[in-house]
Amino acid sequence: MFHSTQQDVMDPAEPVGEELLRIEGLKIHFPLGRRRHGQYAETVYAVDGVDFALHKGQTVSLVGESGCGKSTVARSLVGLVRPTAGSIRYKGMDLRTASRSQMRMLRREVQIVFQDPFASVNPRMRVRDIIEEPLRVQGLPRDRYVAEELLEMVGLQPVYANRFPHEFSGGQMQRIGIARALALKPRVLVLDEPISALDVSIQAQIINLLMDLQDELGLAYLLIAHDVAVVRAVSHRVLVMYLGRIVEAGPEVLSDPGHPYTQALLSAIPSAEVGSRGSRKEIILEGDVPSPTDPPSGCRFRTRCWKAADVCAEEEPGLLDRTGHGALNACHFPAHE
Ligand SMILES: Nc1ncnc2c1ncn2[C@@H]1O[C@H](COP(=O)(O)OP(=O)(O)OP(=O)(O)O)[C@@H](O)[C@H]1O
């Protein structure tokens, strides 16, 4: 199995490492249809007010059902989607006002690893060229054995530099994807479901590699993953997202959930994986996830929540430390109150 960093978990209020990224009030809306009279027919509120920070050497994980906005957050950090509102600061500099050279530094130091390692490469390129591509794009010099060194770093033989993607398994190819992400000596890796497409037997190896690299290089990770056991084991802080917003955040929220949505997410997982303090009662959520083009008023989860009362439709609950233990919860009726 994978190594766990749970013993090292620090109170998020006192993070150990330097702050690298700070995201405040992030909104990413996608207008749909044709614009008429200055208005679009519909807007997808994919990310609708999200705050968090990433620190050196730490892993923050994003969890939540499909479509809640996780990938959109991830892609915004590497410039693949533009925020509609809010700020992304890297080492204190705001992306909205950053100079060209600051943006180049950011594009080097924040890298992304995708779910499908084959989909993001040209199958006709040799591994050496795949790994060196980011250096070429940035116009940086390529040391003679840079691909070989990066392959060794990710546990592959240096001679693989001369081979082509079809010669590798999914796990090996994901290692190559990680080597490519490391080529520019990043400080932050955005890991968008890096193990979801791999055989279960390989997943732990990739997670272990990522944890070792984090120890060695002090990398900050934003991890998106569906496997609760993995997320619990490797995260310093977990953010639970629902319909574009964070509803619960803290180091222990997957062991000791306080928000009804987190409880419902965990109740769908077999108990051995959840841990002793997780909710054991099976919770069946009623109804579908509402459309992100028309989120409910007040608390977005209220239309599926068994605790919902009038106040939930009227007042949006803030993401607050409701227990004094550093975990943040956006519910009018959290479990631990
Ligand atoms: N370019 C786009 N144009 C319109 N809508 C989009 C676009 N990108 C994402 N969306 C919508 O934004 C919402 C959030 O999508 P996102 O991919 O971020 O969710 P997710 O939580 O990562 O889901 P998954 O786990 O399935 O990847 C979804 O409703 C999605 O359809």
TrEMBL record:
Organism of provenance: Streptosporangium saharense
Protein name: Peptide/nickel transport system ATP-binding protein/oligopeptide transport system ATP-binding protein
Keywords: ATP-binding, Nucleotide-binding, Transport
Protein family (similarity comment): Belongs to the ABC transporter superfamily.
Gene Ontology terms: biological process: peptide transport; transmembrane transport
The keyword Ligase belongs to this UniProt entry's keyword annotation: no
Gene Ontology MF terms in the entry: ATP binding; ATP hydrolysis activity
PANTHER family documented for this protein: D,D-DIPEPTIDE TRANSPORT ATP-BINDING PROTEIN DDPF-RELATED (PTHR43776:SF7), TRANSPORT ATP-BINDING PROTEIN (PTHR43776)
Coiled coil: none
